[in-house]
Amino acid sequence: DVEPKVVLVTGATSGIGLAIAKRFARAGHQLVINGLESVTDAQAAIAEIAGNGPCPPFYFEADLADGAESFALANAAIGKFGRVDVLVNNAGIQKVAAVEDLPPQDWERIIAVSLDSAYHTIRAALPGMKERGTGRIVNIASAHGLRASPYKSAYVATKHAVVGLTKTVALEVAEMGITVNAICPGYVWTPLVAAQVTDQAKVHGMSEEDVIRKVMLAPQPTKKFVQPEEVAELALYLASDMARSITGAAISIDGGWTAK
Length: 260
Ligand code: NAD
Hints:
GO terms for molecular function: 3-hydroxybutyrate dehydrogenase activity. The protein has helices at about 15-25, 45-50, 65-80, 105-130, 155-170, 190-205, 210-215, 230-240, and strands at about 5-10, 30-35, 60, 85-90, 135-140, 180-185, 250-255. It folds into 2 domains: about 5-190 and about 225-250, NAD(P)-binding Rossmann-like Domain (Rossmann fold), CATH 3.40.50; about 190-225, no CATH class. The chain is an alpha/beta fold. About 45% of the residues lie in helices and about 15% in strands.
């Protein structure tokens, strides 16, 4: 009963991005998805998304560490479907190291993938949204867009910057029917995090349960991981018409982390 929207989700082959793509597919929308993988390696994710809705997703391989490829990704969506109605900037990477030990190439790549790529997809998608007088931009930031943790300098800097970019663009388009928001999740249960639990249990000589409660979820008052599907539901809501008054917001979904 809803008009299908063209929804571009970056980093949609895994974790939160995959859950978002599946949720929008289930709502009947046309997905344009991206990941670092070749189209062959992305087949499982593509099939999963396709299985959730009526429109097969369009996969576009782009290394978002490269600004030109990020710009090309959004333009590919526009070239194929004529528009991007919903842009979800989700791709992100991190590295844990003391600031002086963080190699410059890692600093640059982290900032390029999460921050610069969002700038490039936004500058490609926004003119069409302005013309149509409607659009939604959802940037997946983090609790680390609002709070810091040691040894995550590039990641924390990037996520704070994503929140700043979100607010600025929101103000620029506030009267044009376009909203721009950031979602700030705490620890989300993704394959990446699951693997960390096993590794940390070995390193600390602790049970996996203790690693989760005492190490990983120490800052998360609920002591529970956020599930990717919860983030996806929030993204879908922000893309809805009823969310038209929510803009320039950094919305926490973090089990109480930033209440402290
Ligand atoms: P993930 O590692 O499971 O998935 C990352 C996705 O990004 C993959 O599809 C990968 O192919 C893609 N990607 C990575 N580098 C890329 C590049 N250079 N070009 C194109 N695609 C690239 O990660 P996730 O846990 O689902 O995280 C997704 C987003 O959510 C990130 O921005 C992350 O910072 C944020 N986040 C995650 C958590 C968490 O606990 N998992 C918490 C807060 C915020």
